[in-house]
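pinned: reference chain
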Amino acid sequence: MSVVEQYTRAHIVTDADVPLLGERGAVPVLLRYDPGDDPGSVRVRLPGAGAREWTFARALLEEGLRAPAGSGAVRVWPCGRVQAVVELHSAQGVSVVEFETKTLLRFLRRTYMAEPVAH
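pinned: its structure tokens
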């Protein structure tokens, strides 16, 4: 089992009190999957002071690429043909992260390839 990490750039709209490196436009975001830690979950880490990270079901991310889906503090939905939105709620506020759908699909494919094959 291997850990999958994928760095990508995403557009973030947030009402959180944490500045996002003072950047406008796309910012670096880390997508992470660790099957040894929790094979049913993925992590999204946003930049900024005290880098904020959310862990949620991998199935939620996959479902949200086809139709609006949500669970607790995380919502995912397709936005047109080429983008997907991940909405993250925390005590610091709400962050809406806009990804290219192909980036999330590539990440999901890699997470499934990282799993051991059951015999």
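why pinned: The mean pLDDT is 85. The longest helix spans residues 101-114.
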